[in-house]
């Protein structure tokens, strides 16, 4: 994408944000008259259903609108004062300020949504991000030497009464403590339906209300009061709204915090009613002038993004039309949306597809007609994407695990030299009595903390690099155990040898029972109920894991 074009568009969005910087009329009317848990749930219903950004790897392109200093291309990094400049994202990470390991990792829509929700994702300098790890927020006890201190943020032992049992806490700079507090208020409200990870219940409890536990409420309330909402937050909230069609209500209405967790708990909240809600037609989403950013896509690939249509008192069907620009690169599945769908409590979603057929930057507009009370009125949505050559990637080299404890370790790898990578996929395989369980973890790299490690089992990991949705070949496989790193092994009583087009299995002493051969995805491809002597198993070229109860997993590469 032409960078000058992008920054002009970014400046236009931020200019709009500064000028308007408030929620649409009636956006929070559903909160009126409610209190305590009912009020928190009403906020959840207001903000939970929103349009997600296009993908994890395209987050830096959104950050170029949400997280650069005004009239500058310097990244606005709340974790460091090292000057780094857009469009390069080198030296930065996509930071989940509310650690992603705190909620149970599964394939649910809510987990995926939280993973790429801009309301809690910020650019962070790599060393600060690594030091922060998944520690809770807190105030560092400066009577001890901090584990990390870069002059902006600190990591160290918590002061008395904080930490929730964690050995270390992350303390941001005073000027950003309110920002982080309001981010956490948002997260425990927008995702109050998630199941939290029992290993990391430092600041949260498994309930809808109040969700935050007592010590974290006290601290976050203090941070919220001492560091009021800044212009930075107002502008960012508006920019995120233009991408996601949802907002952080604790930035729009800071007083809400007091009604849910603070001094006004038990009092009914009032935000003000629109003068004639029956007569007024209101299309709350999508916002006029919003940008649907598809980011960078490899030629031959396609990407989809969703627009939320939600309103009240819309009388006529909305009609849709693509116009102006590269309309052939974008497509929509329908040309009309009924008023009943738009007026429903959850609204309705429209899927827009970007499937470029030529290299270069592409734009078009989606025209929406029928947004007024009498069927008149229209608004336009900007569609943007960029098509690049399809990359060719080299496999990373997985290296020894470090910092191995009874519950975690750090997986490491060496990236291929000179290649641009958006992120990495770690394939983690856990073996319990020889049976593998496979999960995939996204990482900035070239190292990632792996938790919920069990010393009684062994496990392995491999790594793939990803650029524009294209994946590299799989790296080598590294095994991890309580003794540290183990390489390819051939433990008695089972020996595994790789030959051309086959695996050779040998029982060296007593018979070996229940042998299973798995591919790297964890799928069983062969089994041997009882092995006494030698057996040959013909297999196509690839990497395989051989497991049997009582034996360490064995990796072998068939040529």
Provide the low-confidence segments as ranges.
Answer: 1-20, 273-279, 483-492
Question: Strand share of the residues?
Answer: 25-35%
Number of strands: 30
Distance between the termini: 42 Å
What structural class is derived from the secondary structure elements? Answer: alpha+beta
Helicity range of the residues? 10-25%
Radius of gyration (Å): 26 Å
If you average the pLDDT, what whole number results?
85
Shape: globular
Largest sheet: 6 strands, antiparallel
Task: Please sum up the structure shown.
With 559 residues, the chain is α+β, with helices and mostly antiparallel strands.
Write up this protein:
With 559 residues, this protein is of the alpha+beta class. The protein is 20% helix and 33% strand. It has eleven helices and 30 strands. The strands form eight sheets. Strands 17, 18, 20, 21, 22 and 23 form a six-stranded antiparallel β-sheet that branches. A five-stranded mixed β-sheet has the order 7-14-13-9-11. A four-stranded antiparallel β-sheet has the order 6-8-12-10. Helix 1 (3-20) crosses helix 8. The chain is globular. Mean pLDDT is 85; it is low at 1-20, 273-279 and 483-492.
């Amino acid at each position: 994408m032409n960078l000058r074009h992008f920054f002009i568009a970014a400046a236009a969005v931020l200019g709009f944000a500064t000028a308007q910087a408030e929620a649409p009329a009636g956006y929070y009317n559903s909160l009126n008259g409610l209190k305590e848990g009912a009020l928190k749930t009403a906020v959840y219903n207001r903000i939970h259903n929103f349009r997600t950004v296009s993908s994890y790897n395209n987050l830096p392109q959104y950050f170029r609108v949400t997280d650069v200093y005004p009239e500058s291309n310097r990244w606005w990094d709340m974790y460091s004062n090292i000057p780094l400049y857009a469009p390069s994202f080198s030296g930065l990470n996509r930071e989940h300020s509310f650690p992603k390991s705190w909620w149970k990792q599964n394939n649910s829509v809510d987990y995926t949504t939280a993973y790429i929700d801009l309301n809690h994702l910020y650019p962070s300098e790599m060393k600060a991000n690594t030091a922060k790890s998944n520690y809770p927020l807190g105030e560092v006890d400066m009577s001890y030497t901090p584990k990390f201190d870069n002059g902006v943020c600190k990591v160290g032992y918590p002061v008395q009464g904080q930490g929730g049992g964690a050995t270390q806490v992350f303390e941001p700079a005073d000027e950003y403590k309110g920002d982080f507090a309001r981010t956490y208020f948002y997260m425990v409200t927008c995702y109050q339906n998630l199941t939290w990870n029992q290993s990391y219940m430092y600041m949260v409890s498994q309930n809808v209300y109040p969700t935050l536990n007592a010590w974290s409420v006290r601290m976050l309330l203090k941070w919220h009061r001492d560091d009021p909402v800044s212009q930075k937050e107002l502008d960012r909230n508006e920019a995120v709204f233009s991408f996601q069609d949802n907002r952080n209500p604790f930035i729009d209405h800071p007083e809400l915090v007091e009604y849910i967790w603070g001094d006004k708990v038990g009092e009914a909240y009032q935000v003000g009613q629109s003068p004639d809600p029956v007569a007024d037609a209101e299309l709350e989403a999508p916002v006029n002038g919003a940008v649907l950013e598809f980011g960078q896509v490899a030629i031959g690939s396609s990407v989809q993004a969703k627009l939320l249509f939600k309103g009240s008192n819309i009388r006529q069907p909305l009609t849709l039309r693509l116009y102006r620009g590269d309309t052939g690169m974008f497509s929509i599945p329908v040309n009309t949306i009924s008023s009943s769908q738009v007026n429903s409590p959850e609204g309705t979603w429209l899927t827009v597809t970007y499937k470029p057929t030529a290299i270069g930057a592409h734009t078009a507009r989606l025209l929406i007609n029928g947004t007024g009370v009498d069927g008149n009125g229209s608004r336009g949505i900007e569609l943007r994407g960029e098509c690049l050559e399809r990359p060719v990637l080299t496999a990373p080299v997985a290296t020894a695990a470090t910092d191995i404890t009874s519950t975690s370790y750090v997986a490491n790898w060496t990236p291929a030299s000179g290649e641009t990578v958006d992120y990495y996929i770690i394939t983690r395989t856990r073996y319990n009595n020889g049976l593998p369980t496979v999960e995939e973890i996204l990482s900035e790299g070239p190292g990632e903390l792996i938790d919920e490690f069990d010393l009684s089992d062994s496990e392995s990991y491999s790594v793939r690099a990803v650029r524009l949705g294209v994946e590299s070949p799989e790296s080598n496989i590294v095994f991890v155990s309580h003794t540290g790193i183990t390489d390819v092994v051939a433990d008695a009583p089972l020996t595994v040898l790789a030959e051309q087009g086959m695996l050779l299995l040998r029982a060296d002493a007593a018979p070996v029972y229940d042998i299973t051969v798995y591919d790297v995805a964890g799928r069983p491809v062969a089994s041997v109920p009882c092995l006494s002597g030698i057996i040959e198993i013909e297999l196509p070229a690839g990497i395989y894991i051989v497991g049997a109860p009582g034996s360490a997993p064995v990796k072998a590469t068939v040529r």
